[in-house]
Amino acid sequence: MKWMERTSHTLPAGLLVAYFFLFIVLAFGPVDRAVWLAENATVWIIVGTLAVLYAFGIRFSNTSYLLMSVLIYLYTIGGHYTFAKVPFDWFTNFFSFERNHYDRIAHFSVGLYAYAIAEWLWTKRLVANRFLLFTYPVFAIAMIAMTYEVVEWIAAASATSEVGTAYLGSQGDIWDAQKDMFLNVLGALLAVCLFFLFRMKNSSSGASIKNIEEDNF
User: Which among 199, 208, 211 is positioned nearest to 67, based on CA atoms?
Assistant: First the structure.
């Protein structure tokens, strides 16, 4: 038990250190400093929120922190290059895409936060049945995705045309916002399925669920 608790505290700290290292490296010479600031502001809010929650004892499992860190790293990289210019040609060429889809993958990673939402609802017994446990995190991510797209639109409209275009990263796709929200939801569906596969399976086999920090997947 003590080894699992140490691991539970060590992993978030390790992920945070890795983020700081990545941030410092990519803070030098970004493609566009204004875009870098705008994209990293989102990451700072997320990292700060998770740190404050952790300090107040609201903590998640190792799996949750791993999944939530994906967005943090992807957006930090995207902020350095701007999403449309991230070196992602190998992926584009492999699937014969006409555009850089790095931003699509980044938006998909937003949905992975549904795992932590489901975990919190389940641990605190805040939902009455498994249907709500499955659907609520997905709906929450969908609402966050919609809100973010509106904020992104307002921020882009308030900036210069070049900065706004780079910040949006639509690459000429008029349906970019809709596709981004769709990928957010797909990521959320995957995250909730993983939650039911990992956590609910353990629950049905009699595993303890009193402390979510004991998860060590």
Answer: 199
φ/ψ of residue 14, rounded to 5: -65, -40
| Eight-state DSSP code of residue 68 | H
pLDDT value for 174: 61
Q: What are phi and psi of 39, to 5 degrees?
A: -70, -40
Residue 145: enclosing H or E segment and its boundaries?
A: helix 130-158
Q: 82, 137 in Cβ contact below 8 A?
A: no
59-75, pLDDT tens digit by residue? 999 999 999 999 999 99
Global pTM reads 0.80
The predicted-structure confidence for 29-64, as pLDDT tens digits, reads as follows 999 898 899 889 999 999 999 999 999 989 999 999
User: What b/e readout covers 62-80, taking b as 16+ CB neighbours within 10 angstroms?
Assistant: bbbbbbbbbbbbbbbbbbb
Cα separation, 117 vs 137, whole angstroms:
6
- Structural tokens at position 127: 């939902």
- Write the single-letter amino acid at 44: W
Distance of CA 210 to the CA centre of its chain: 26
What whole-number distance in Å separates Cα of residue 101 and Cα of residue 95? 10
**Other beta carbons less than 10 A from residue 209's beta carbon:** 16
Q: Return the ∠ at Cα 94 (arms to 89 and 100), rounded to 5°.
A: 40
C-alpha 192: how far from its chain's center? 14
